[in-house]
Amino acid sequence: MFCLETYLQESEDYEVLISRAxxxxxxxxxxxxxxEVIHVKAGEKILGARIIGIPPVPVGINENKGTILFPYTKxxxxxxxxxxxxxxxxxxxxxxxxxx
Amino acid sequence: MKKALILLGCPESxxxxxxxxxxxxxxxxxxxxxxxxxTPSAMKLLEVGDPExxxxxNKIDIDSCINELEDGMFDVLVGFxxxxxxxxxxxxFNSILxxxxxxxIFEKDMEKLEDFQNMVAESTNATxxxxxAYHNPTPLRVRFDKAVKKLNESGKI
Lengths: 100, 157
Description:
The complex is a heterodimer. Chain A is an alpha+beta fold. Chain A contains three helices and seven strands, in the order H-E-H-E-E-E-E-E-E-H.
């Protein structure tokens, strides 16, 4: 089963667009950097992990690059925005979570 | 038996650990089975202060437990908030559990305190207990007691 935590620890093909930030700043970074932005409920599962945030939680989709951008929060380190490569199937799954 | 979940944030504020013990004690007195979700560092502080596990009996890791959480799994959620990340965690736990909740918000900086209060108020129906606090947990304890009394009398918890 895919584990986002392990993936972020062991892979190098993802990008961190902002880190140790507040949620609102991270939401802005997603809005500014993703060609397509959908919004999901807090706690929705993406790539098998629950998304932590203040709803509506933005998730960016870059279909050309095959990536998604989402907020990643840790209690002592604040929120980061992570852009990771995903398959087309995963992008479709993410779009289905859209509450807009 | 009713179940309460206590959600702890980053342990860098001194008020959190004694208040976590107090909140656990309070809910146990009210007949709740209490579970504490926290980071390993926040749990270590509790374990040193409560070596026999007299107060803190059920412990879970904040990040690994979130995937297992489901609607209605707990009867009440109490969250400690003194950082932006803690607002996100509290709102998310509240959204998943869909249960009566209390947000204990504390910060030295008045602007941040108000910001956290507004973020919680805009995204949840939680009862907010807040105070400009850092070292001294007494204002929080007094306001928490009043909030619990009110929620108890209204039958919400």
